[in-house]
Amino acid sequence: MKTMNEEVFSKENVFGKGQANTAYAQYFIGESFLNPLTSAGSPAVGLANVTFEPGCRNNWHIHHADKGGGQILICTAGEGWYQEEGKEAVSLVPGTVITIPANVKHWHGAKADSWFSHIAMDVPGENAQNEWCEPVTDEEYAKLG
């Protein structure tokens, strides 16, 4: 359900907004928030609830791995977008699960008129690392409506 009202959205966002995502702010257009759900390094799978203000999106990026790896997104509140390079964007609503294979360039974020949250899970892999690329331009983003 789309919502611009942060108070209403916060009631739907069952995993919590968390703190300002300052460590990765350079890779986002707009404000995002991070609420880690597991501790770094324990267990082997990292989970975090990522919240995006309306219009916020991360840069194009790639989860590299020689074997295994990638990312899974579990959409929990609000509405957003996911797009792989060379493909049409996919609308995200609560309950949507996106499996992102390793080595696939993509981005994800909120719709322009809604707050959005998803749980991000980094899939373990050999020599796994993240590469941040260029921002999603305002022109690319505006085409999504």
TrEMBL record:
The protein, known as: Cupin type-2 domain-containing protein
InterPro entries attached to this UniProt entry: Cupin_2, HNL-like_cupin, RmlC-like_jellyroll, RmlC_Cupin_sf
PANTHER family: BLL4564 PROTEIN, RIBD C-TERMINAL DOMAIN CONTAINING PROTEIN
CDD domains: cupin_HNL-like (cd02233)
One Pfam short name: Cupin_2
Domain Cupin type-2, chain residue ranges per copy: 50-112
